[in-house]
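Chain X:
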Amino acid sequence: MVGSVKRRRPAPLVVPSFAKLNLGLEVLGVRQDGYHELRTIFQTFDLRDDVAIRPRPSGVTVTCDDPDVPTDGSNLAVRAAVELQRFVGLARGLEIRITKRIPVGGGLGGGSSNAASVLMALDRAWRLRLGTAGLYPLARRIGADVPFFLFGGTALGLARGDEVYPLRHQVLAHVVVAHLGRPVSTAAVFRRLDERLTPRENSTTIFRFVSRDLEGRALPILSNDLEQAALEEAPDLAEQVGRIRVVLVREGALLATLSGSGSSYFGVFDDPKRARRARAALAAAGFRAFRGQTLSQDRYRRAWARSLGVVTRTRGADQGRSGQHGDHGRQGHPGGRREAEGVRIHRV
């Protein structure tokens, strides 16, 4: 009897999907299109999801090990795949599997990062050779934070946050992030802010930060215009944020603020020992806390290069083909490097 030969499923392509922080965020006013005019300093750090993609006969599906992540067309990773299919005129089926470590609804950009990861991975898998420039317009249509994840590192975000300019000076520091366990509605936070918002075209804090030497002394000038409105929208979180901030400042954080519209609160440190103490103190107080390091644009690119099997020896702000992105490494210690003391500035 001749048995049928069962075809082996192709191995998935697994790529990293890193979290972000907003080191500073200014809301300047409401635009004519109804969105808000923003200035923000984006920063990737080494907390990451894993996104696995595998071909299937038809359709786009997504699964995730976190039940809070939607698995329908509202998932940004699915939207990214569909947008790319339409753009290049391909109807290839796709299976997406997300291993979630970035807290959902914490202001850390997990969904946007997942979407950008799908775009960059499919650019490679489908041999499209669109690169950052070709994927950028698609990313902007999917969500305001998605374009940043095509670049990573330290970057200036303008307009809705979707005009992204990687900075020559890249912040290398230690971060401690406390997640408060529940999302805060971004739309509700902006509505509350709008009640007292006046146009601030001449606000200069973000631009002062960009123009200055970014050593640790520059970080304290940054702040998040959404923090007060977010805590007013979720007053039950205000007491917890107060306790978190006390710990971070006591342990020497150079900057302690909310990321995006929350609810994750973070501190930036120039000393890994202080960061470890802060994380331990927050955990002892019952908070879910993460400790990690920022990722420069160069390390972000090399992470992507390694995940795609691409060897790259170039350094700098290459906006070329997909695969020229960052440093992978084990979570929390990219590349297995020793922790260095001090907030260092890496120039690209």
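Chain Y:
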Amino acid sequence: MTTALFFIREIPIYGDLILSPMAGFSDKPFRAICRELGSAMSYTEFVSADGLAHNNRKSWQYFTYDEAERPIAFQLFDHEVDRLVTQCQRVVDRLHPDTIDINMGCSVNNVAQRGAGAGLLRTPDKIAELFRRLSTTLPVPVTGKIRLGWDDQSRNYLEVAHILEDNGASAIAVHGRTKMQAYKGEADWHPIAEIKASVKIPVIGNGDVKRVADIERIKALTGCDAVMIGRAAIGNPWIFQRKDFADVTFEERSALIRRHLAAMLDYYGPRLGIVLFRKHVVKYIKGVPYATDVRLALLTCTTADEFIDLFNQWEERYERGEYHGTAEDAALFPEFDSCDTEPAA
């Protein structure tokens, strides 16, 4: 695509699908795969400003990225405005991301109950101060990811959206659930449409986009500039090519599993790489013939050699079965339900 679909301030965005920032999943290897398959920009996992302030090595490692990922957004969270502003300035000065994104959507209690993540939605004045300071001090655009509110009795998404725009935010991503819903129930897309109609900055819709048809439905309903996809991309990053799980050939799936594993081993090392990859592979093979026979073994293997041996056995059994999946075999591939580890935002 040669024409930008929208701009985050001066930054052109050339696609309408974006991998959502997800704790434990949106790491450098997975982001690279999703970008290759069509995700229009990268968002890091959310990172604690407190961890950065204490120079926690793991906190800084979350911001490792490749130049090919640009435009890339660093996502941070905290409940203290001063610390968050200071650490945003530090990461911009040291690592030069294209945008800074503030997490106001994490529903996990040990984040939200302390006033960070979705907890910020309960303090609109603090959001105003934070974005006013960030937008006037940082050289890069500042964006925010929000939910609809803390609960159904305090759905203040329009108030927050106007506060963000009025205080310099360059884009808003909206998850169509409240904090109290977490990932339960259905996402409500109508508030995303209300926000889009009420602000002039780009709006990115998020929540319950599980298949290709959902992409067009949320865009038609909300008019959003782009669609952010999280859990449904785990095991099916081809959704960024607008391909559903059942439309991916066995050969495509097998090749990407091997490549993703190699990237994880290279990035994390042999021990941690295999452990972290296991939660991906169970999604890659979910619903594929003979997967149940190897699922437990793949989840408990501890070395790359063991994993490859098990995976080779599965491939051979699949090929002996002479099964040839097509899009018409969608019944074999159950609807994506939930992750092994719930993403934070």
